[in-house]
């Protein structure tokens, strides 16, 4: 997706060797024009599939999923990281290991909002080690829903998540894949 | 907003005397049609005002603000609750007291994404005690931006937030105000 590559080259900031900050448009400030273009592209990549629901994990996936859902005409459910008064007691739970925080946390979706047999598309901002997606997949599996695919805005091709998920047979569409960010230069696949 | 009242009456669940769960369409599962109607209504309520940016706080405000921003044609910035690798070190900070968790937490917006003189609209899902809005207002004030108004989807009129904010001279537009939920019955103002 050329528009997205241009935006990343123009506004992305590389911190160290593996952090790509795109907080000017994707996960702190939100550029609503580019989010709509991302949503249209996801629709294009998953055309021909029957999709009943989009799921994502809080926080950074929410806006991307909500805007994209307009092109699929389906509801979104975002998995919550904390028990909250807004969440039912009866939930499906996935486990996510955070390498940055070196701890395991849970993500949850109320059993009311994910049903057996539903065709689910997962959307998220980044794919790095794949942990968040695996946690969401656990939730989809517990609900006996069908995981149709995973739409990722930016895949870090130099981390192992994409490989793990593809080898597990998951249908992944990454709008851009960054193969390297060494010496401050972004190389796309 | 009659459509929203109908949706609340149809799908809202009252827990105890003061919790109104609308997680079927507003803050866990997201009904994208109603979010668009909410966005249009906010645009109508704030027509005639110059608005440069919409801000909200994670988590529940994000989807509402992102969808609404399409009608204002402005970017969104959502304040983050935790220090994250996606957040700059240089931030404006607001303090929010959580009555449910009985503790004070901070919300932060990077100084890059809120500028002196910008005209800011705050959007959030609920207005109850007003703490989250006051925390966001602290951030707007620190940035020397102008708070044009606050758009709220559901105000709990039986809690003190609306009164505190209006007495502080803040321009609040609540799409619906719930005056009472006793005995399982929702009374709108």
Automatic annotation (TrEMBL), chains A, B:
Keyword Transferase among UniProt keywords: yes
InterPro entries for this protein: PRTase-like (IPR029057), PRTase_dom (IPR000836), Pur/Pyrimidine_PRTase (IPR050118), Xanthine_PRibTrfase (IPR010079)
Single GO cellular component term: cytoplasm
GO BP term (any one): xanthine metabolic process
Record keywords: Cytoplasm, Glycosyltransferase, Purine salvage, Transferase
Record-listed xanthine binding positions: 20, 27, 156
E.C. number: 2.4.2.22
Binding-site positions, 5-phospho-alpha-D-ribose 1-diphosphate: 128-132
Pfam families on file: Pribosyltran (PF00156)
Main location: cytoplasm
Pathway: Purine metabolism; XMP biosynthesis via salvage pathway; XMP from xanthine: step 1/1
Catalysed reaction, written as an equation: XMP + diphosphate = xanthine + 5-phospho-alpha-D-ribose 1-diphosphate
Location in or out of the cell: Cytoplasm
Annotated Phosphoribosyltransferase domain residues: 36-157
One function term, GO molecular function aspect: xanthine phosphoribosyltransferase activity
Record keyword Transferase present: yes
EC class name: transferase
Entry's family note: Belongs to the purine/pyrimidine phosphoribosyltransferase family. Xpt subfamily.
Task performed by this protein: Converts the preformed base xanthine, a product of nucleic acid breakdown, to xanthosine 5'-monophosphate (XMP), so it can be reused for RNA or DNA synthesis.
Assembly description: Homodimer.
HAMAP family: XPRTase
Protein name per Swiss-Prot or TrEMBL: Xanthine phosphoribosyltransferase
Upper taxonomic lineage: Bacteria, Bacillati, Bacillota, Clostridia, Peptostreptococcales
